[in-house]
Amino acid sequence: MSIGQTFLGLLESSPRHGYELKRLYDERFGQARPLHYGQVYSTLARLLRSGLVEVDGVEPGAGPERKRYAITSAGVTDVERWLAQPEKPDIYLQNTLYAKVVLGLLTGRDAADILDVQRTEHLREMRELTRRKAAGDLADQLICDFALFHLEADLRWLELTAARLDQLARTLHIPAPRPDAAPGLDRSTT
């Protein structure tokens, strides 16, 4: 998620201080990964340099002066463009899992074990999301549903891959394991 564009969207309704943006962001989007204050202020500094926000006011505080930020017309255009642009479907996890399965096969490890470990982690995450969804408001429920549907698709891929491990090993030209071969050894040299 783009923190900068999210801040612009939060600023569109009214000017806000950095700590207000952090609170709103964490409340709406960052339950699992709240922002660090350094991230908030470095993002605001970048948006300010880019002309997407401006300082709307400065108030004295107990510590440093508190700046209130407002979105500029260029910021409104930027957030409109971002909201209208579709997101590229995120396929990194499947690529990583595929690489692990192939490397498991290539190194003589049990690729089925790799898939089982991942399946267990997916199921654990699904249980956690289901608990969060049951206790959450509508926003939480929608966020959890999105994640759950993706995890379900990953589980289907894990099952399909497990069913095709022998075929994948043949495609990769991996010889059948010898009973005395230790995992992680190159079989061509044993």
TrEMBL record:
Residue stretches making up the Transcription regulator PadR N-terminal domain: 8-78
Pfam families in the record: PadR
Alphabetized InterPro entries for the sequence: Tscrpt_reg_PadR_N, WH-like_DNA-bd_sf, WH_DNA-bd_sf
This protein's name: PadR family transcriptional regulator
Organism for this UniProt entry: Plantactinospora sonchi
